[in-house]
Structures are given as structure tokens and as C-alpha cells.
Amino acid sequence: MGEQRKSFLEQVQSQIKSKEAKAFVSAELHHHLNEVKNYWLQKGISEEQADEKAVTQMGNPISIGRNLNRIHRPKVDWLTLALFVAALLLGFLPLLSQGYIHTNHFSTYKIAFVVLGGIVACGIMFVDYRKMANKGWLFYVLGSLFLFLLTTNFNTVVDGQGVLKIGPLKIEGLMAIPFFLMAWAGFFQSNRFKMWQFLLLFVLSSYFFLQLSLTTLFIYVTMTFTMIWWSKLKKKAIWIVLGSISALVATWGGIGWMTVAYYQKYRVLSFLNPYNAEYLTSKFGLLEIHHLLVGAGWFGKHSFADQFIPEAHTNFVFLSFTYYYGWLFAAILIVVLCLVALRIMFIARNLNDTYSKLLLAGVVMVYTVQLVGNVGMIVGFFPMTNMSLPFISYGLMPILLNAFLIGIVLSIYRRKDLMVTNTLHGNQQ
Amino acid sequence: MDKRLKNLRKTMNREVFAQLKFTESHKKSIREKIKQETHSDEEILIAMMQLLVQEKTGYELVSLLQNRGILNFKENEGSLYVILHRLELKGVLTSSWQEDGAKFYQLNKKGRKLLKKVEEQPLSNHISFKEILER
Question: Which DSSP string do the residues of A194-206 spell out, in sequence order?
Fold first, then answer.
């Protein structure tokens, strides 16, 4: 390569921030210079002169580089970030309403959780998610190992959920969801991944989840069943496999009904038949929830008077929020949370590669299941579960999980215009 | 301060400007720029899109544009890639890399629609085009 050409390309590259863009811009200009050089060589001038002519014809490297940088610089999705921050801030309101903010350590923890969540989301944004595409096995093994250690070591059971408590820290099975999200996205984007591999890995991991918590298992299953549609497996095979799994689960559910704990039975029964008196007297039931929801009015009660709401800052946070701040605020909350999901779907629609699409399909599903599940159980079309309201419910695990989801979205958005590099590297190898 | 600036001017005259000559090629390029009829950004974009109905590399595109009398990219061929990349980002073009390192561009469905729309409009009000140009 001639000296002049080298310095020209270096000057263009010096203006471009993104490493990937540097590579493909330089490759393209290099090719162009070669063509021009060949043209002049055919006209019969010396090699050196031809090279010089080619470079001068290109124009000013600095301004070319600067303009290309404007197109290819990594982007931050400010809309998702703004929604994320808004949701996190809204998450402080339930604490405010219950006076926790003045009385004890809840508020300090909450601030710590939120800051940690922000760091996780922004940190993941800078990680190049595309490098994880062929590491599906690694994530699967890590996730399974985590679940295995948790199932053998959990020391507390909260509402049928196995939890490892270390001091104030509660480690839940929910933490494994990100690992499996990355694992399945990695598996499904591969052409060589077979259906029997899916079945084996899926059954094994589901077994672990089942031992820890039904709610987390439910999130896991919906996530996997959604992602598989974007895989390279045949649609017909997917239909058959998912259909038979569902049939098996239904049969197992019928048998399992005899063996589940009373409170679990109670939840399902009170969901199916909320106005049956037997289920109302013993515990906080749907009828009571309904009563509180309707009683809230547009602007809320602004006090809890002598109403007691259990789990008011975790599972029933939407109820306590609505009761205290009113329907109007509840509507704003729902709109903000729904916009997050819509934004992610919008980004996913404009992507061209399978891996990013798979990731976003999983992200949207994990997020939406929590949102619909939590609000649904308050409004009454979803059974009572331990589903937390994303960003709003108190607790480290849910915040970290959802921060991870947002981080993935930001990471994909940041690199979505650099897809061309894949084909470039594919051809250069 | 004043003295220092004067010194700077002296040194500049002595060192830098003494070596700088107003050569024949400078004159020529200025004359050429004066002669050159300039095409508006819209005209260039339409010509580019018309040429890209068939797959082409940036190099092929430059020579074809020059054949059409568009000389904006003369001595400034690199800036063509700025426009190409912008169009690709806007989803109007699709690109593919060949084995030998050549990158080909072609108008896709969205691009053909846009071209058709623009060709039917009078030149003065290309609203859909503005969107691509500003950014």
C-alpha cells in the first residue's frame, strides 16, 4: 500500500469513533482506490502516480471521516433510557405513600437498588452483545449451575418460592432468567441446533425452575416458547413439540392438583370463583381487592386509614399505589410501563439479524409477562402469583432482572446500524 | 502581545508562505470550479437512485454520475460514500459485500417507491427527500 494511501485512510479513520465502522469504511475506500488506480494504470502512467491520483480524487479525508462518523457513531436510545428512568422514579412513590421513607431502612435500600439497576443497564449497553452469539452453551451451563446450587442450598421458603437468604440479600431463581435468555438466543440463531437438543435442555432447566418457584418457571416457559418462533427450527416441528408439551403439562397438572399445597390451591380456586365466601374469609381475596380499587377514585385516598394491604410494596404494589394516588396516577404508571414494551417492539421490528431479534423477543416477553401478570392479578384476570411489577415493586432481584433487559435493548440499539460488519467479516475470513 | 504576533507573521512569511506557490494546477482547479455548473442535492440524489436500480459499487456510480455531467464528486469521490451510507441507514438501499472486497449497493423496495414518488413530484417540493438530506 502506498504511503499516501495509508495516510489518507488513517486520516479518515481518525475521525471515526466506532471500531467496526473504521474497519468497513476503510475496506470500502480501499477497494475504491484500487479501482481508480487500475483505471490510471491502464492509461499507462506509473504505479506511484496512479496511486497519487487515486488519493487526490478522493477529496479531503478529514471531512469525509467526520461526515461518516456522524452516521456511524454509536447511538444511545434516549427514549428507552428516559422511560427507564421515569419508571424507576415512579417506583419511589409507593414507599413515599407508606411513610417508609421516614421510618426505616427501606428507602436507603431502594435507592441502592435503583442506582445498582442503572449501573447494570448502562454497563450492559457498552458490552457488544454480538460477541455472545456463539456462547449459548456457556450461558446455559452457568444458568443451570446457578439453579442447581440454589435448589440444593436454599434456606428459606417464601410463598412456595425457594430463596437463599444471605443477610439482607435474597437470591432468587429469577436471577437465572438472563442466563437462559442469552443461552436460548445463542442456540436458536444457530442453523445446527436440533429439536432434540432443545427438548433435552428445556426439560432439564424447567425441572430446576420448578423446584424453586412456579412463577419463575412460568416466566421462563413463556420466554422460551416465544423465542423459539424466531429460531431456525421448522415451524411445523415447533407446533408439534409445543403442543405435546402443553398436553403433558395439562395432564400433569390434573394429577398434581391432589398434591399441591393448600395456599396454592386456594389461589387458583379464588381466581376461578372469587365470590365464593369460603375463599374470602381466610385471606386477602379478590373481592377485597376489587373493593379497594373501585374505592380509590380518580385522585386516590392519600391515606391508608385502617385499610391493611398485605405485601403493599411488592406483589400488591399496584393496588396500594392505585388506592393511595388514584386512578389517574395508576393510568400514567401503566402508560409508562406499556410504552417501554412498545418501544422495544418498535426497535425489534427494524432489525435484520436473527440474533438481535431473538434477544428482543425474549426481552419483550419476560417484561410483558411480569407487567400483565402483576396488573392482571390485581384487576382479576390472572391468578395470584409472586409476579412483581417491573421497576415499581420493591426488591433487588426484580430490579436487576429488568435493568438487564433494558441494558440488552440499549446495547442492541447502540449497534443496530453496524450490522454490515457481519457480512464483511464473513467474507474476509 | 502585539510584538509576538508581529514576530509570528514574520516567521510565517519567511518559513511557510515562501514555500507555497500558486501553481498552475491551483489556477486550473479554481477555473474549473467557476465553470462547473452545480447540481442541487436533490438532483444528485435522484440521479443516484436512478442509477442504483441496478446493483453497483461506489466506484461504478461515480463514473456513471460523471457521464451524466454531475461533477460534484470530482476530486471529492469520498463524499459519495457519505451519501450512500446515509441512504443505506435510512433503509432505502441494501448492500452486499463481494468476495473481492467490493461493496455493492442497490435500491430496495422502499427505495424504489421513494424514487417513483419523487420523480412524479415537481422539483421544488421534495418533502420526503428533505428527510434524507437533513441528518
Answer: -HHHHHHHHHHHH
Taking the alpha carbons at both ends of chain A, their separation in whole angstroms is 20
Of A120-129, A297-306, A382-391, A398-407, minimum mean pLDDT range: A297-306
Do A30 and A160 sit in the same domain of this protein?
no
Residues of A with Cβ-Cβ distance to B96 under 8 angstroms: 423
- The shortest C-alpha distance from B135 to chain A (Å) reads 8
pTM of this prediction? 0.75
Domain range enclosing A14:
3-73
Residues in chain A with CB shorter than 8 Å from the CB of B102 are 31
Q: Cβ distance A33 to A54 under 8 Å?
A: yes
Chain B within 8 Å of A58 (Cβ-Cβ)?
Answer: yes
Q: What percent of chain B has pLDDT over 70?
A: 84
User: What's the pLDDT tens digit per position in A266-323?
Assistant: 666 666 555 544 444 445 566 677 777 777 777 776 666 656 666 667 777 888 888 8
C-alpha cell at A115: 442506582
A217 has a chain B CB within 8 A of its CB: no
**A350 CB within 8 Å of a chain B CB:** yes
**Residue B14 maps to a domain:** no
Q: Is B126 exposed, middle or buried (0-12, 13-18, 19+ CB in 10 A)?
A: buried
* Nearest CB neighbour to A32, from listed B58, B85, B86: B58
State phi, psi for A393 to the nearest 5 degrees.
-60, 145
